[in-house]
Model the fold of this input.
Amino acid sequence: MTYCVGLLLNAGMVCLSDTRTNAGLDNISTYRKMFTFNVPDERVITIMTAGSLSVTQTTLARLDEAAVDIEATPQTSILLAPTILQVVEIIGRTLAATSKEIGNRMGESASSASASMIVAGQRAGGDMRMFLVYPEGNFIEATPDTPYLQIGEHKYGKPILDRVVTPETSISDAKKAVLLSMDSTLRSNLSVGMPLDLAVIEKDACRVTEQRRIEEGDAVFREMSAAWSIALKDGFSAIKI
Amino acid sequence: MTYCVGLLLNAGMVCLSDTRTNAGLDNISTYRKMFTFNVPDERVITIMTAGSLSVTQTTLARLDEAAVDIEATPQTSILLAPTILQVVEIIGRTLAATSKEIGNRMGESASSASASMIVAGQRAGGDMRMFLVYPEGNFIEATPDTPYLQIGEHKYGKPILDRVVTPETSISDAKKAVLLSMDSTLRSNLSVGMPLDLAVIEKDACRVTEQRRIEEGDAVFREMSAAWSIALKDGFSAIKI
Done:
């Protein structure tokens, strides 16, 4: 499993992903699930992935290859597509085609050859946009009503997002929110694991303005997690019924 | 869907269930999912149900009929079985047989003909025991390490239980914990809905010592939910990263 979450705020976009992949409980590895494509001062695209590693890796490799191909066109390269919407359409097509191809090869057990992605991007002069791309290549977009998107094991970490995240949330609060959302998920689901990748794309920067890998035992994360635990217990004790 | 939770504490057992059932999103009804069998001063058994309504209703009806049959024996009646373990075995057998029968009748779509149950019980002179009965009739038991059991939509409401519930938790804190656990679930999942049924079985009472239906708009529940929301937001604001 996996947990990735992205917030689309007035001040910027905040993305967080875990790194655990597993094929059964007895085969656990660490793989990066966050990838950034950047044309300095022109566009930034951050992709987070969940699902079959074979599908997500192949999809990313193909997007990468198509982007740098000498015959790349705005219809095939996410570095040349004229809008973020068209970037997402390229990603959706590549993901769906890869899923289908691998699914066909797998035959009956094809149900596991699927993957989904969160795509956060901005072009110079354009709006920040964030999409969730489904295995079939169709997608939905984050809006002010629900300014976050999640893929993978999303349930444990959803309540905190519902309660604190709005488009007005500051980048600093947003980092706290995604980390606490991840903290609840890590506690409850073994298939989501450290280290974490955090990326912040501030509005109109057209680059990742903060990128951090949070390792197991990271002091800041551990303190925040402990403080949250205490805050929850104190809040609980204070409530009268 | 459904959410039911039971806590096994040193001071007693606390059970909470919602009442929403649905066949598709456009067919929602209210059905009680908590049932109590009581022989005053001798035994108390509270059963909570999740899954196919046709399976759970038929199972309960059969348990009821078998219990009051004039030829009832300790092998067939949950009111006569000599231990709570044997009570659970009767329930497990009845549930599995009913599931199988209804599943056979449904043929290919049999996957939906399954149900699970939480059984909380005590006999005079015996220990309080709480079991989760799986669709196949096998079961697991709550222990001091994990003194709670959940069925149905369990993920949203698990983090709060993990953080605050231990066997030493008081009945009053336990009621608060299950109600807040339900509150998180109600917020996130449309298929779980008010009203709620709350039951408390104090240790050695051999009866339900508190039984309450919490209706939509219940003032106490609403205040508690609002206080929890504020506590979470305040706790969140106070954390530094």
The mean pLDDT of chain B is 93.
